[in-house]
Amino acid sequence: MSDTSQDTPETGVTDTGRRNLLKMAGVGAASVAAASFGNPLRAQGSEWDKTFPQSDAVDHSKVEFTNRYGITLVGDLYMPAGQADGPLPALAVAGPFGAVKEQAAGLYAQIMAERGFVTLAFDPSFVGESGGQPRSVASPDINTEDFMAAIDFLGLHDAVDRERLGIIGICGFGGMALNAVAADKRVKAVATTSMYDMSRVMAKGYYDSLTDEQRAENLAAMSRQRWEDASSESPALAGGLPDSLDGIDDPVIQMYHAYYKDPERGYHPRSVNSNDGWTVTSPLSFMNMPLLTYIDEISPRPMLVIAGSEAHSRYFSEDAVAAAAEPKELMIIDGADHVDLYDQVDIIPFDRLESFFNQNLA
Fold first, then answer.
1. Could you tell me which residues come within 8 angstroms of residue 324 by beta carbon, excluding any fewer than 6 positions away?
2. How far apart are CA 198 and CA 207, in angstroms?
3. Which residue in 320, 317, 315 sits closest to 293, CA to CA?
4. CB-based contact 109:119 (threshold 8 Å)
5. Can you tell me the distance from the alpha carbon of 174 to that of 147, in angstroms, rounded to the nearest whole number?
6. What is the CATH number of the domain that holds 129?
7. For the chain, is the Cβ count within 10 Å smaller at the N or the C terminus?
8. What positions does the domain Peptidase S9 prolyl oligopeptidase catalytic occupy (predicted)?
């Protein structure tokens, strides 16, 4: 195993149960309340609607594809501008958990396209512009399948060499990415940043601190909630990040708020985490379906796992790499927190991501 680090400059709910659910979801906030249970929210017009500037070095287009469950997924396809040589290596990109493709995934996709890859940033099922009912639901199975469906799409694209496909997963979609690659042998390399194992944190709490009694209580409460949801027009939402941080001293909530609620940084009107909350029952399937059971079956294909030295989630990356087989690399970014690796382009190790995929998608 390779274990590397990178020096970088440091950059800078009143109910306990609700705060814990927010953090377990990698924020766990949700999609826009007024439209959470109707049709997918679609962009109006053709104007640039991302949280990052558009690059002149990249051609962008909106695409649709369908997963194995018949759910239509919407993605942003980025290609090197004027690139006549082909076919090219390609990357599917998704995350963070509860974000949309206009946030961190799109930023990663655009920058990797500037570096010569065809990239696809997509909204997972039930989120953003993608289909699926009800809205604001997560699934360890379906969201893993979403990555595989993205690989289907890329492998059928004329500009793509289907023998040179990789995946980047961010935050909770890092765990989903590892699960997808363990099963999908078409993928030649996988990288994650600020990885969360959503099944572990929902089943056991942070640092595996949830007692058996607390787990049983949580499952009992969500089980009863199903009757409430079934008798209502729409499932209940867990609630999102607070609009104000007044009286909130939890550093994790403060960190997520600084990204998802700031319109000058990461806020997006279609983002789950920028708005009103996942469905209350979203953790149910995660709690009994551990995502990383077969992580060793990624081998002999390489994995690059990147985490910030100051990230509360760092232990997920360390434990995943410990459980995986070679070849594997853990890269710790000195001074970075969890959210720094969403959008701080001077901190995210794009040079390493480029060299990793160039080497392993050759």
1. 295, 296, 298, 299, 303
2. 12
3. 320
4. yes
5. 11
6. 3.40.50.1820
7. C
8. 109-209
> pTM value?
0.91
Q: Which two tokens stand for residue 240?
A: 């999102």
Cis peptide before 300 (omega within 30 of 0): yes
Residue 271 contacts residue 240 (beta carbons within 8 Å): no
What letter represents residue 164's amino acid? Answer: R
Q: Packing angle between helix 350-360 and helix 104-114, nearest 10 degrees?
A: 60
Quote the number of domains for the chain.
Answer: 1
Structure confidence by residue, pLDDT tens digits, 163-178: 999 999 999 999 999 9
Asked whether 53 and 298 are in contact (CB, 8 A), the reply is: no
Burial 164-193 (b: 16+ CB within 10 A, else e): bbbbbbbbbbbbbbbbbbbebeebbbbbbb
Largest distance between two CA atoms of the chain:
60
* Rounded Cα gap, residues 118 and 90, in angstroms: 4
Residues in the chain: 362
* Cα–chain center distance at 361: 22
Nearest to 259 by CA among 98, 58, 81: 98
pLDDT digits (tens, 9 = 90+) for 21-66: 555 544 542 232 333 345 676 665 668 999 999 999 999 999 999 9
99 closest CA partner among 82, 121, 120: 121
DSSP type of residue 40: P
First to last CA, the chain: 21
Taking residue 197's Cβ as centre, other Cβ atoms within 10 Å add up to 26
Q: DSSP letter string over 279-326?
A: BTTTHHHHHT--TTTTGGGGTTS-EEEEEETT-TTHHHHHHHHHHSPS
Structure tokens at 180: 């997808």
- Residues 6 or more apart in contact with residue 229 via CB below 8 angstroms: 235, 236, 279, 280, 281
In angstroms, the CA 97 to CA 169 distance is 10
Q: Domain residues for 340? A: 2-360
Please answer whether residues 296 and 323 qualify as being in contact, where contact means their C-beta atoms are separated by less than 8 angstroms: yes
- Are the beta carbons of 323 and 349 closer than 8 angstroms? no
| Amino acid code (one letter) for 206 | Y
